[in-house]
Amino acid sequence: MHLYNVPWQDRYALLGILGGFIFITSAQMLGLYDSWRERPVITNVQTTLNAWLMTWVFLVVLAFLFKDSSNYSRGVLLIWAVMTPATFILYRLFFRIALSHIRKQGKNSKRIAIVGAGKIGTHLSQVIHENKWLGYQIIGFYDDKKEVLDSNINNFPVIGTTDKLCDDAKNLEFDEVYLCLPLRAENKIKQLLNDLTETTVAVKYIPDLFTFDLVHAKWTDIKGLPVVSVYDTPLNSNSSRVIKRAEDIILSSLILILISPIMILIAIGVKLSSTGPIFYRQTRVGWNGKNFQMLKFRSMPVDVEQNGIKWGGAKDKANTKFGQFIRSTSLDELPQFLNVLKGDMSIVGPRPERDIFVEQFKKEIPRYMQKHMVKAGITGWAQINGWRGDTSLEKRVEFDLHYINNWSLWLDIKIIILTVLKGFINKNAS
Hints:
Number of strands: 15
Radius of gyration: 28 Å
Order of helices and strands: EEHHHEHEEEHEHEEEHEEHHEEHEHHH
Number of helices: 13
Distance between the termini: 69 Å
């Protein structure tokens, strides 16, 4: 018997069984077999790949220790390494699509009750109503406020008070209950949790994140003690910083090699178009609020800012003719790859602002300084979504904070690819 023109041996079956056992264990550790209902597709894919990677690392270590790798065909192992996770992912996608279709028809659904007809409960009902593929059917709200009793919220009835909730839970009127009460209702939450222990319904608690602007908060724990990361970023991890820095060094080195002929031509153009230095250095605010000198190809006469510096108004600034061209095409930004190689900047991150404006903006724009929790970037999530040049600073900060809260290597790659595909022409920097 042959497998891909390689004689079949029992060791391949043994490897498959061992690999399957390790994969199941890894997947269990990573939570792959938890409920799929609320989990995004990309999370399922990433968890599957991470579990498979852990499996391969374990197998490689075993092969090294037992000096057994030479007994296996590299071609067979390569096919197995690629086809197995692909099959797992396709299998899960197929069942997810099938289940979503079934759930949209009202089948395979869970009946849920929402305690609290306030902002949190209302928002939860809207999310569930707009995402029927989740497979949740809201039977209604329970609230002790007299003014909302017997009314409808988002087309869902307010059934009764929290006293009725416990009776309905005992009668199995619903499968799950979501407690959406404000944090100040601590005693009521404790009472409900105690009363609901006499039932078999699943109880879930959604804290009042809106009160403290914790929408992007993440839950962690310290030896079982729950902790909410209110203002944090994945890049606070040393391993993430190493990955990010390696990404910057490798990509900026390759890019500088590729664009060096273009940079030489631009340098000649700057020198011939007006007197003065080739590079223009600006003091910008970067990581942890520290200043650095950001490089650009000079697009303006040397004395253009002698009467003061004004934020924005790119179209009104006195550029040279050649400078106008490199500014509108963002070619003046190319020297910033030298800043990246040096470590002052990153390829992807929030665009840095001049120090004299940061002092003003941090007083006017909420959470503005939090964009400095990571290194400034040449391109970013805000820029590929159209918020660049003379556009709303509030929207830019909003998108920058989304990037900071959700950083991953894959997100960086996505932003770089979209930057290339969407081009570098900046209509706000002519």
